[in-house]
Amino acid sequence: MGKHTLKLYVTGQTPRSQRAIANIREICEKETDGEYELIVIDVLENPQLAEDEKIIATPTLVKFLPPPLRRIIGDLSNQEKVLLGLDLFPNKKNR
């Protein structure tokens, strides 16, 4: 499996943003064996980046690689939904 490239769009340092960051890092560490790149973009600091990607709600996670492109909106606390959205299958050795 190749490296996953993800962008997480958040709005400031709110509890919801912090929860989304922590949740996706935990999921990626466990399910990709650390083979991921996570770019966190604060839409308050970089509104043009959010506009370019047509981000209308935060937090929004965008998976660029491997294809297909996927978007997940929310704090990413539902691991099953996130795994399904990212086309990841639970890493059996970590269970």
Fold and architecture overview:
By secondary structure, the chain is of the alpha+beta class. The chain has a single domain, classed as 3-Layer(aba) Sandwich (Glutaredoxin), CATH 3.40.30. Helix content is 32%, strand content 25%. The chain has three helices and four strands, in the order E-H-E-H-E-E-H. The protein has a four-stranded mixed beta sheet. A hairpin with a 4-residue loop joins strand 3 and strand 4. The longest helix has 17 residues.
Which features characterize this protein?
95 residues; alpha+beta; Glutaredoxin; four-stranded mixed sheet; 32% helix; globular
Describe, in short, the structure shown.
The protein has helices at 15-31, 47-52, 79-85, and strands at residues 4-10, 36-42, 60-65, 70-73. By secondary structure, it is α+β, with helices and mostly antiparallel strands.
